[in-house]
Amino acid sequence: MLKTVGVTEVRFLQSRRAARIAYVVQGSGPPLIALPPWATHLTGEMRLSGHDSFHQRLAERHRVVRYDRWGTGLSDRARSDFSLEADLEVLTDVVEHLKLRRFVLVGPSQAGLLAAVFARRHPERVSHLVLYGTRISALTDEATWPALRALILANWPVAARSIAAVATRGSDPGDVEAFADLFVMAVTPEMAVALQDAAIAHDLRDVVGDIQVPTLVLHRRNDPLVAPEAAIALAGWIPGARLELLEGEAHVHSAGDAGHLAERICAFTAGAQRAPAAQLTDREAEIVERVAQGQTNAEIAAQLVLSVRTVERHLLNAYTKLGVRGRTEAISQWLQQRADATSDT
C-alpha cells in the first residue's frame, strides 16, 4: 500500500503483532535505519527546520529507512504492549520486510535503548551503531516526570508546547510550534505517558557494556535535556566507542544544525559498504591475516603468546565487525579486501 505526500512515499508493512507500520525509504547505498524516538509522525515532522538537511545528507551516502513507532504517527495507534520486546519485534519485522542483511543503526534520544539492545543481540547485522542524545532526560527524571506526566494527561497541547520549548532550544524559532504540533499530531496523551513510563523502567548501563560493534556517541554540548556528562559516561561504558561533542543546543536531532549531525554520522560510517575491516583493531587484523594463511587458533596463540581463548575472542569480534558468520566467510572477505586494496594502488 502506497501513499505519496510531497516527495515522501509512505509505505506500510504488517508486523507479526498484526499492527500496520508506516515507513519511508530514501536514497541509496549501504542501509541505515533511523529509529523512532518517543513519538513520531513521518509527514508531520517535515516542518522541523533541520528535517530535510538531516535526511537528505544521510541519503547522499545511505539508503535511509525510517518508520513511525507502533502506537504513534501513521502506524497503528492501537497498542497495549509497551515493552521493549514489542519494539524490538517491530524493528525486526522492518528489517525482514526490507530484506536488510546488514545496516547502520541510528538511535536518537529514547530510541538509543532500542538501538543498543538490538546491536548487542545481533552484532552480525549492525555495521555501525550511532547513539545521539541518549540517556534519561531532564524532563523524565524522577523529580520532573510525575508533574509532567500529570500535565500531559490534563492538558496535552500545553504539555507538548512546554516540551517543545525545551527540546528545540537554540534552533529555528518556528521549531517550537512545529514540534508541539508534531507531538499532538503523533500521539495521544495516554499513549505518550504509557510509552515514557515503559522507557523509564530500563537502565541503559545494563545493556551497553557488551556491545561489540563500532559505536559513535554523538551529542550537542548544550543539550538542555541530556547533559554532556551523560554522553561521556555512556561512551565510557561501551567498548571502543567514539565520542563526539558538537556545538549546539537542540535535543531534537532534526532541529538546529541537523545537517552537521548527518555529516558526522556519514563520516563515521564511511566505508561501511566496501571496507568493514577498517574497523578491526591491529590485533584483530593480525589474527585474521594468520587465519587466512591457514594457521589454527592454537598455532596463532603460541606464536603471539596469547591464550587460545583470547584468540577466539579476537576472532569473534572480527567476525562481528566483518559481518561474517565464521572462519570460511572471514577468510574469503579478507582475501577479497586485500585484492581490492592491491588493485586500488
Lay out the secondary structure.
Elements: E1 2-5, E2 8-14, E3 20-26, E4 31-34, H1 51-59, E5 63-67, H2 84-97, E6 103-108, H3 111-121, E7 126-132, H4 145-154, H5 156-167, H6 174-186, H7 189-200, H8 205-208, E8 215-220, H9 228-237, E9 242-246, H10 258-269, H11 282-292, H12 297-304, H13 308-322, H14 327-344
Parallel strand pairs: 4-5, 4-6, 6-7, 7-8, 8-9
Antiparallel strand pairs: 1-2, 2-3, 3-5
Helix pairs in contact: 1-10, 4-5, 5-6, 11-13, 11-14, 12-13
What is the CA-atom radius of gyration, in angstroms? 21 Å
Helix content: 40-55%
Give the tally of structural domains. Answer: 2
In the CATH hierarchy, what is the class of the largest domain? Alpha Beta
CATH architectural designation of the largest domain: 3-Layer(aba) Sandwich
CATH superfamily of the largest domain: Alpha/Beta hydrolase fold, catalytic domain
Order of strands, widest sheet? 1-2-3-5-4-6-7-8-9
List the secondary-structure elements in sequence, H or E.
EEEEHEHEHEHHHHHEHEHHHHH
Strand content: 5-15%
Between the first and last Cα atoms, what is the distance in angstroms? 48 Å
**Number of discrete helical segments:** 14
Low-confidence stretches: 1-7, 272-278
* Content-based structural category: alpha/beta
Assembly type of the chains comes to: single chain
- Overall pLDDT confidence: 88
Largest sheet: 9 strands, mixed
Q: Which term fits the overall shape?
A: elongated
CATH topology value of the largest domain: Rossmann fold
What is the count of β-strands? 9
